[in-house]
Amino acid sequence: MTKLSVNVNKIATLRNARGGNVPNLLKVAADIERFGAHGITIHPRPDERHIRYQDARDLKDIVTTEFNIEGNPNPKFIDLVLKIKPDQVTLVPDAEDAITSNAGWDTLKHRSFLKEVIAEFKNAGIRTSIFVDPDPNLVAGAKETGTDRIELYTESYATGYATDRERAILPFVEAAKKANELELGINAGHDLSLDNIQYFGQNIPSLLEVSIGHALICESIYLGLENVVNMYINKLK
Ligand SMILES: CC(=O)[C@@H](O)[C@H](O)COP(=O)(O)O
Ligand SMILES: NCC(=O)COP(=O)(O)O
């Protein structure tokens, strides 16, 4: 079975909007685990616009399932991850000013850098994953870095799903084939949702884990909205 790791960045976004501690990120993460998720993912960004570095440290004591920290391995991020020692670190080449992650690694161009960083994390006993576009050459490049897994960047699949899902999945099937051949574990994430997740899983049977945040939190708001509106109306009777 594919594991579901819930990305809680959006909970931190909501909390930070008011400057207080509502919603309580640590409680939400613990509840998500209690509801059955197999892991918690965070992606602390350098400007700490959602997850703060302190959140990452605090979550280490709360998360009892799999803790996955994503980010661009700059010195501050490497230091944080080595101190926390999560179960998994996912390396993402995101620019500081990017609204969200928008590309995978060029694993050929950055091979020696990635090799060095991967070795550092693996020596510390942390499983590693590299965020890549669904391209067999880049998957082969990832293998050369010594990483345990890749995370397939699924934005193009999510976008293409609505118009032509057979076409949208094709590069992912090819990339997964290459990863299987090379005995690289496969994770996936970005813009996966209740609409598109099942078809993805059916076509990538060796998928070990998905990390989902944005859609899952939006869907939770929608699916809870009717209930909460009625709870307020009842309180006002
Ligand atoms: C690595 C990745 O795919 C991202 O989806 C990410 O973790 C989400 O980051 P934001 O919540 O900052 O958009
Ligand atoms: N690695 C992807 C992730 O953690 C969540 O991405 P998204 O569901 O917020 O797009």
TrEMBL record:
Gene Ontology terms for molecular function: pyridoxine 5'-phosphate synthase activity
Transferase as UniProt keyword: yes
Catalysis: reaction(s): 3-amino-2-oxopropyl phosphate + 1-deoxy-D-xylulose 5-phosphate = pyridoxine 5'-phosphate + phosphate + 2 H2O + H(+)
Superkingdom field: Bacteria
UniProt feature coiled coil, ranges: none
Transferase in keyword set: yes
Residues binding 1-deoxy-D-xylulose 5-phosphate: 45, 50, 100
Positions bearing the site annotation: Transition state stabilizer: 151
Metabolic or biological pathway, per its Swiss-Prot or TrEMBL entry: Cofactor biosynthesis; pyridoxine 5'-phosphate biosynthesis; pyridoxine 5'-phosphate from D-erythrose 4-phosphate: step 5/5
Assigned EC number: 2.6.99.2
Pfam families in UniProt: PdxJ
Subunit structure: Homooctamer; tetramer of dimers.
Record function comment: Catalyzes the complicated ring closure reaction between the two acyclic compounds 1-deoxy-D-xylulose-5-phosphate (DXP) and 3-amino-2-oxopropyl phosphate (1-amino-acetone-3-phosphate or AAP) to form pyridoxine 5'-phosphate (PNP) and inorganic phosphate.
UniProt xrefs under NCBIfam families: pdxJ (TIGR00559), PRK05265.1-3 (NF003625), PRK05265.1-4 (NF003626)
HAMAP family hit by this protein: PdxJ
Family: Belongs to the PNP synthase family.
PANTHER family (UniProt xref): PYRIDOXINE 5'-PHOSPHATE SYNTHASE
Protein name: Pyridoxine 5'-phosphate synthase
UniProt source species: Maribacter flavus
